[in-house]
Amino acid sequence: MYYDDHEPAHFHAEYAEDEVVISIETLAVIAGGLSARALGLVADWAVLHQDELRRAWLKAKNLEVPDRIAPLS
Considering 12, 15, 45, 54, which has the largest number of Cβ atoms within 10 A of its Cβ? Predict the structure, then answer.
C-alpha cells in the first residue's frame, strides 16, 4: 500500500518483475497481472487477511503506519 493512495481501496503485490493491483473489497484484479501460481498465493493470503487489509488501508489513507500483516505460511 502507498500512503494517501487513490480509491478504490486496494493493495499492490509484486513477484519478480510483475505487479498486480487488487481490490480489498472484492479481491478482484484492478490492474496488472501475475502468473497464475503467484496470483493464487496472493489471493489465498488476501482472503485470510481481508479485515487486516481494510484496517491497513484506512491507516495508510490517514498517513498512519499500518500494522504488519503476517505472510502466507
Answer: 45
Cα 24 from Cα 10, distance rounded (Å): 5
Q: Is residue 43 in some structural domain?
A: yes
pLDDT digits (tens, 9 = 90+) for 24-47: 999 999 999 999 999 999 999 999
Domains of the chain: total: 1
In a domain, 73, yes or no: no
C-alpha cell at 45: 493470503
What is the full DSSP assignment across 2-63? -TTPPSSPEEEEEETTEEEEEETTT--EEEE---HHHHHHHHHHHHHTHHHHHHHHHHHHTT
Give the up-direction half-sphere exposure of residue 70: CA atoms within 13 A in the CB hemisphere.
Answer: 6
When the pLDDT of each residue in the chain is averaged and rounded to a whole number, the result is 95
- Is there a domain that residue 55 lies in? yes
